[in-house]
Backbone:
């Protein structure tokens, strides 16, 4: 097993930085360009949510852990922001608490589409953890 | 990300270069909205994504927002140069049901005439 840990302030300019780091880490599994784009997007969604919803553009820290196990990449994204009251509702396509900011409410739907598994753990007032995983290579392609 | 604007009579062409995310979507919003506010003659918006290397859900919201404005002034939006990844995002966001797609700019312009 290989792993990496990263911590960044919750600022929007770090979104692309985290995407690049995760892509470089995942590259060891020799993913296709498409798979890599999917992972980058899922990470981008979770990190953006922490900046936009958890900390509401105020100060905060985002922690990103990633693990490589055989053909599987697992990514965990933690914030200590405001948390999610109703996780089932948050997962619904088109649900957004910030329509005034032109959010589409598709972030979780995209994460679920692009990763094999997406877990959301959240405590209102304490923070949120997103844990997602995706397998690469032959095993995945056979399933399609 | 950069957004280059080109005006051809009633058509406004926005050429993207780079990555469209939460951080950069503001650039797209501001540039296009400023031009729409300034120019009453502009009716249609062509989004050229040939050099757009990444997009996430922030792109869905930002494009939908411009789409609504253009529609409100009686115009049309067309997307061209759509890469596989960007297409997936727009598809999931339901945008390909309301916005037509062309292979390149000249085809987009022709379809608006
Ligand atoms: N880390 C988080 N902390 C607090 N609330 C969150 C967090 N992540 C998501 N949410 C809540 O879940 C809702 C749905 O998230 P999702 O990413 O699906 O949509 P969105 O961010 O509102 O819009 P989009 O991602 O399409 O721009 C958000 O509107 C927000 O209320
Ligand atoms: Mg989101």
Residues:
């Amino acid at each position: 097993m290989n792993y990496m840990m990263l911590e960044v302030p919750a600022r929007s300019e770090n979104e692309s930085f985290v995407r690049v780091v995760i892509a470089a880490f995942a590259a060891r599994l020799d993913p296709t360009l498409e798979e890599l784009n999917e992972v980058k997007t899922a990470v981008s969604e979770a990190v953006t949510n922490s900046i936009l919803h958890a900390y509401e553009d105020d100060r905060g820290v985002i922690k990103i852990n990633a693990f490589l196990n055989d053909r599987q990449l697992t990514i965990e994204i933690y914030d200590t922001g405001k948390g999610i009251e109703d996780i089932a509702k948050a997962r619904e396509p088109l649900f957004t608490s910030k329509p005034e900011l032109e959010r589409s409410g598709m972030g979780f739907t995209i994460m679920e589409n692009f990763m094999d598994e997406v877990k959301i753990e959240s405590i209102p007032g304490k923070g949120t953890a997103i844990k997602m995983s995706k397998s690469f290579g032959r095993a995945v392609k056979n399933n399609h | 990300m950069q957004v280059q604007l080109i005006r051809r009579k009633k058509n406004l062409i926005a050429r993207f270069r780079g990555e469209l995310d939460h951080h950069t979507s503001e650039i797209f919003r501001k540039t296009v909205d400023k031009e729409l506010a300034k120019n009453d003659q502009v009716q249609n918006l062509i989004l050229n994504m040939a050099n757009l290397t990444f997009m996430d859900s922030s792109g869905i919201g930002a494009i939908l927002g411009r789409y609504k404005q253009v529609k409100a002034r009686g115009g049309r939006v067309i997307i061209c140069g759509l890469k596989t990844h960007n297409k997936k995002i727009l598809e999931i966001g339901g945008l390909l049901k309301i916005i037509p797609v062309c292979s390149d700019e000249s085809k987009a312009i022709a379809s608006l005439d």
